[in-house]
Structure formats: structure tokens, C-alpha cells
Amino acid sequence: MSIAFLQMPCCSESTRSINLVLNLAKKWQRQWIAMLRISTHRQMRSWHALLVRSLASVKLGSFAALLFLAGFVRPAVATNREQQLIVRGDRIFIPVTVNGRSTEALLDSAAELTLIDDDFAKAIGVEQEGHETVKGSGGEDKAQFANGVDIHAVGTDLKNLTVAVLDLEDLSKRLVGTKVAVIIGRELFDAGRFKLDIERGKISKMSQSVRPRGVMLPLVTFRGIEVFPIEIEGHSGVQAAFDLGNGSEMMIGRQAAEHLGLSGPGRIVERKTGGGIGGPVFRDVVSLSTISIAGKTFANVRAAIEDQDSQSDANIGVKQLRHFIIVTDFPGHKLWLQPR
Q1: Are 164 and 275 members of one domain?
Q2: What are the tens digits of pLDDT across the range 207-260?
Q3: What pLDDT does residue 138 have?
Q4: d(Cα 203, Cα 154) in Å, to the nearest integer?
Q5: How many angstroms separate the CA atoms of 266 and 19, rounded?
Q6: Which whole-number Å values give the CA distances from 215 to 212, 229, 325, in the listed order?
Q7: Residues 219 and 333 both lie in one domain
Q8: Cα angle vertex 19, ends 14, 20, to 5°?
Q9: For residue 144, what is the domain's CATH number?
Q10: Do both 173 and 266 map to the same domain?
């Protein structure tokens, strides 16, 4: 609580008053901040009146109450401002600016690096260098890199990024249906705590002081991607990638599918084309009787078997995650899922 701008009389009584306000603030912080966050404007006036009466017994009155309220209300309002989450089927996008140019970006929490289409990179004057191989869910592709890229998204400034530049035209046609200029990766999620409500089309950056609702699940970094525990047909401890960029079926790694007895000929219901960066691939599709995520059970779930060695046990995408209000905390390695 800052009071440096206030003109306070210099006397011991005032000093004792301020110290008492600070002590009361620490003592009542948890109770009052919970009430204030859910209060309407009219209720705020009621809380203020109640606080004045509570502090009157120690002769602090309205001035101390205003100090108390000023110290606890303002930060939560600025931090938790909701912004648009653009939902098209099971693909989600956010408005971004890249080096000052506005566009939409496909949101992909399982992308280790942000990707920019080569045509868009040329349009904004991004200098490209090098020739490297990037690995996606469809295999490998050639890419260049660009340094010093600034991205603003969800009230967050990502400065001086190194991004991969490649041709996203094929991926755009196969998976999205419209041109994708940017795929924003985990750099955004690494920048703080975020709340997503896919069904409402809302995303916000969340204060660390706010306690998220829902089931808290630990995140573990596996080959550059965050994974969390789920249950498949009664088998617990399956580690699934948290993948907001997956707008298709959930996936199961070939090794995990064999271990759980899911890949036998009698389990396969279809063979279909999938794959993202790297081009199309064919995958076996199985039907799972149940999966459980954060205590919520899904029945008769289609899952594609992924043959890449780098695949985690499973991969959970938007088809399942949209049934939760989501809070991500990549820096703290935590995920909260609140069933809708």
C-alpha cells in the first residue's frame, strides 16, 4: 500500500494510525479481498460503510477505510480484463500485433516456438536467416528464423523473440480453411498465468494473487511441451500434452496405446489423414470407452494413434478442453480445470 503522495500531519498519533491500518490490512486481507472481487458498485459502498464502522472503534474512520480499499481493489481490475478469443470450430485464435502489424494468430500451447508465415514475414519486413529443420505432428519441414520480433497479445508484450518462418499455406488449407499468418506458441503461456473460457470466447491474463477455481493439476515439461495427468479406460497416470493447437481428435502415442492394449485390430475403427507441420500422415483411430480429465468423464471418445517417437502418452486438444474453464500457469507448472 503506497501513501507517499498523501499530506499527513507529522505526529505520533498519525504514525500509530497508519501502522494500525497496515496491521489490520494484513489481518483482514483474505476476507476482504474475496468479498471485494465479487462485489457490485452498490455492494462496494456497503462494504465501505461497514469498514468505516469497524475502524471507528480505533478512531481511524473513513480516511483509513479509503486507504484500505485503494490498496486492495485496483490491481485486480486491471489484471483480469477479458479479451476476445476467436473460436472457429475446434480451432482458437487471438488478435495480436507483430512488429506493429495487426493480425490473428492460431493459439498453440504445444508449439515450442512461435511460427510466422513467410509471406507475412516479408510483408512486415522481418529479416530471415539460416535454414533449419523443424519437426511437427506431420513430420519435418524446412524453416528459416527471424530475430528481434515483438509480439503483443492478451495484454502481454513479448519482446525480441526468435521465431520460425516457413510456408504455412498447406497447413492453412488442410486444417483451418483460411490463411494462417501466425501460430503463437508457448512463449505467451510462459509469460504468466492465463484464463481461457473457450465456450464464451474469452481470454485474460490473471493475477498471481487470485486463487483459480477448479481442479489443480501438475504440469511437467516433456520434450518442450507441458503434459498433465489423465485417465484412459481406468488406467491412471497417463501423461497428456496440453495442446490448444489440436483441433482434431485426441491422440495417443503408439507405445502408450500398445501398453494399454488399445492398438489391437479389434480396437481400430478407422484410418484417416491427420498431421500439422510437416504434411499429412495416416493414423489409426480407436474408440475409447472412457477418459477422465480433472474428474470429468467423457464416454466413447475417438483417439488417433500417433507413430512419432517424440509423442507423449496422449494429447488432449480443444474438443475436450472446451468443456472446462482453464487457467494455465506454465511458469508455476500448474493447470486448473473447472468443469463447465
Answers
A1: no
A2: 999 999 999 999 999 999 999 999 999 999 999 999 999 999 999 999 999 999
A3: 53
A4: 7
A5: 73
A6: 9, 12, 10
A7: yes
A8: 95
A9: 2.40.70.10
A10: no
| Cα separation, 84 vs 216, whole angstroms | 25
Question: For 46, which DSSP code?
Answer: H
- What pLDDT sits at residue 271? 87
Do 88 and 160 belong together in one domain? yes
Give the chain's radius of gyration (CA, Å).
25
Give the residue numbers spanning the domain of 16. Answer: 12-79
Average pLDDT score, the chain: 80
Distances from the Cα of 158 to the Cα of 97, 189, 292, angstroms: 10, 11, 35
Three cell numbers, residue 326: 482453464
Cα–Cα distances (Å) from 201 to 82, 84, 90, 105, in that order, read: 10, 6, 12, 15
186 and 258 inside one domain: no
* Identity at 50, one-letter amino acid code: L
Those residues with Cβ within 8 angstroms of residue 285's Cβ, 6 or more apart along the chain or in another chain:
249, 268, 269, 270, 271, 272, 302, 303, 304, 305
Highest mean pLDDT out of 63-72, 106-115, 170-179 = 106-115
Residues with Cβ within 8 Å of residue 93, at least 6 apart in sequence: 85, 86, 87, 104, 105, 106, 107
